[in-house]
Amino acid sequence: MFPAACSRLARVAASLRPQRGLSLFSQTGSSNWSKVVSDAEKIVGYPTSFMSLRCLLSDELSNVAMHIRKLVGTQHPLLSTARGFVYDSKNNLQMRGLVVLLLSKAAGPSHAASSVLAQDMVSGIYPSQRNLAEITELIHTAFLVHRGIVNLKEWTDSDGPLKDMEFGNKMAVLSGDFLLANACTGLAELNDTKVVELISSAIGDLVQGIYYENPSSAEPQDGLADGVDVASWEEQSFMSHGALLAKSCQAAMQLAKHDGDAQRLGYLYGKHLSLGHKLNSDLQPFMKGGMGEPVQFSLSSAPVVFHRQIVGEERWHQQLQQAKTLRNQLDYSKLLAAVKLEKGVSTAADLCCYHSNKALEAIQAFPSSEARSALENIAFAITKF
Fold first, then answer.
1. Residue 29 domain-assigned?
2. pLDDT band at 28 (very low <50, low <70, confident <90, very high)
3. pLDDT at res. 349
4. The domain that contains 273 carries what CATH number?
5. Which residues pair with 330 in a beta bridge?
């Protein structure tokens, strides 16, 4: 689809000054991630790994944590979400807030900002931009918690006692609502109407995107919901995975009184980085498959969506039937092999390179700096499969 994207990206990346080897999306272990976060924090002058800690350690959530212990021994997803706050194997914690801070520093103060505001800057970042980064992380965390709600219609005895699963659902709703309420309070305190509108619309996009994902109805029985093609996949992925970062980056420019062009560039960087990251995540099972380990992937992931459009509906449903076992369960290894035979995987990889390249282009107008180099390295990192 975009045959020159990766080669073009490689040429751009080769011209960049390497800064600290930043790679936010590497899968090489917690020690490497700790170094990445530590190096990035030195650039923005702020411990972003503790962005949400002030809220997470509040008395209200401490009481919630005490109750969550009742779920130990069950399969309720709220437990794994809670563990993710301590250790995230996918290296996604604080990514959004960190990017907001790096972009804020890379853009610097605007000509329209008063000298009084400039005096409040710490490491080249306004306090309001730091607050925005925290708010962005709180919103993301709230939706992670809300995603940990179990569909009780699919509950089985192996998941745990029904009463515990119901209790876990209540905790997920209350905890997520608490985090979201704190984020909205902080948003109002920024005292900027446009920023409030931007982040409010991002929350609306998140809700709509997650609703349309509806993964429970998109799995083995009938593949994907009818009408899902590449364009609708990208639209839905932006709402559920990209809108928050894109609009937060735009809001960071607004808080520094940057003009519409700078705000548009911030938005574009966040948008393309998010979509590239989503594609990278969707591609991981297809890059690692065939190594003797059990493989499973979502039937709404980008390579599958692209494959389905390439082969057509009739052939796709034939492949689904051929991949089913005698127990009418889906053999993901067979389906993975079928997807790999066509161009769904390569198309997704090309599109990932395209979005990475567009993210790089968006920040070239900002002055050359350590922060911009870090953003460039992040954009390049999402092409590492």
1. no
2. very low
3. 94
4. 1.10.600.10
5. 324
Tokens describing residue 347: 């198309």
Distance from C-alpha of 384 to C-alpha of 80, rounded to nearest angstrom? 26
pLDDT tens figures, 123-150: 888 999 999 998 998 898 888 877 777 6
Q: What are phi and psi of 356, to 5 degrees?
A: -60, -45
**Dist CA 323 CA 333 (whole Å):** 8
Task: List the Cα angle 238/177/102 in 5-degree steps.
Answer: 50
Q: How many domains, the chain?
A: 1
Q: How far is CA 173 from the centre of its chain?
A: 21
CA distance 289 to 19: 32
Within a domain: residue 55?
yes
Task: Tell me which residue of 88, 36, 5, 3 sits closest to 275, measured CA to CA.
Answer: 5
* Pair 270, 249: CB distance under 8 Å: yes
Full residue range of the structural domain in which residue 307 is found: 42-288+295-380
Does a structural domain hold residue 367?
A: yes
User: In the numeric block, which tokens belong to residue 253?
Assistant: 């420019």
